[in-house]
Amino acid sequence: MNQPLAYVHPGAKIAKNVVIEPFTTIYNNVTIGEGTWIGSNVTIMEGARIGKNCNIFPGSVISAIPQDLKYNDEDTLAVIGDNVTIRECVTINKGTSDKMKTVIGDNCLIMAYCHVAHDCIIGNNCIFSNNSTLAGHISIGDYVVLAGMTAVHQFCSIGNHAFVTGGSLVRKDVPPYVKAAREPLSYVGINSVGLRRRGFSTDKIREIQDIYRILYQKNYNNTQASDLIEAEMEATPERDEILQFIKNSHRGIMKGYFKSNS
């Protein structure tokens, strides 16, 4: 249902039961799936691919060109999955020649005033609280929570089920299953509350704690800790995921937290 005061380009592909409120502008080369609601004063620019049953609140701008001087008018995309809620004044830029797309997975909640820059790849079931800001080329796994006003440096990675506390500056990679806090950003434990909510057993949570105890609390370097984890811990999907994340880290993983003597 399109309001007469909205503008929808004839080349946009809009499912029949999409609701578009007044004063919204939808450009050419846009696809919007069934059941999606687009609030007033939303701008959806070329290259947007929006899934089913999404809710996009007023003031958001989806698929604007990257804020990257290297961008040379490539034909790139901003891909948003199904059941995604995008709150007021969120900006999501499309990709560059690096990945050719920016991706938001299914069932994500992107709260007001967040920014997702070009070539970010975001997993499923993530929550980004108000004013969280992602620079370009960031990779974020599934079930990641960024509390309010978190800022993530370009090319960083954040693993599955990680929780980053509010006001954090993420300059290094954040491994899976952890809580990250303090300045500089540090390991402060595993995300046990989130893991229990998602059905992880007590034994599985204890296994993950044991892995990170070796990595962060035994004064080993990352290589020594990884070798010890591989040698002493039973091979499980979670163990292997953590080891692979450390091995593939380009910026290096965040440090552990140690209290000063002062």
> Biggest sheet, strands in spatial order?
3-6-9-12-15-18-21-24-26-27-28
Number of strands: 28
Judged by helices, strands and strand pairing, the structural class is alpha/beta
Please give the radius of gyration in angstroms: 20 Å
CATH topology of the largest domain: UDP N-Acetylglucosamine Acyltransferase, domain 1
Q: What is the total domain count?
A: 2
Distance between the termini: 64 Å
Task: Give the CATH superfamily of the largest domain.
Answer: Hexapeptide repeat proteins
Biggest beta sheet attributes: 11 strands, mixed
Helix content: 10-25%
Q: What is the CATH architecture descriptor of the largest domain?
A: 3 Solenoid
**Poorly predicted segments:** none
Question: Strand portion, in percent?
Answer: 25-35%
Individual helix count: 4
CATH class of the largest domain: Mainly Beta
Shape assignment:
elongated
Can you tell me about this structure?
The protein has 262 residues and is of the alpha/beta class. It has two domains: 7-137, UDP N-Acetylglucosamine Acyltransferase, domain 1 (3 Solenoid), CATH 2.160.10.10; 195-256, Udp N-acetylglucosamine O-acyltransferase, C-terminal domain (Udp N-acetylglucosamine O-acyltransferase, Domain 2). Helix content is 17%, strand content 26%. It is built from four helices and 28 strands. It has helices at 192-197, 202-217, 222-232, 237-248; strands spanning 7-8, 13-14, 19-20, 25-26, 31-32, 37-38, 43-44, 48-50, 55-56, 61-64, 77-80, 85-86, 91-93, 101-104, 109-110, 115-116, 121-122, 127-128, 133-134, 139-140, 145-146, 151-152, 157-158, 163-164, 169-170, 178-181, 186-190, 255-256. The strands form three sheets. An eleven-stranded mixed sheet has the order 3-6-9-12-15-18-21-24-26-27-28. Strands 1-4-7-10-13-16-19-22-25 form a nine-stranded parallel sheet, with no helix packed on it. Helix 2 runs antiparallel to helix 3 and helix 3 packs antiparallel against helix 4 (237-248). The longest helix is centred in the C-terminal third of the chain and has 16 residues, at 202-217.
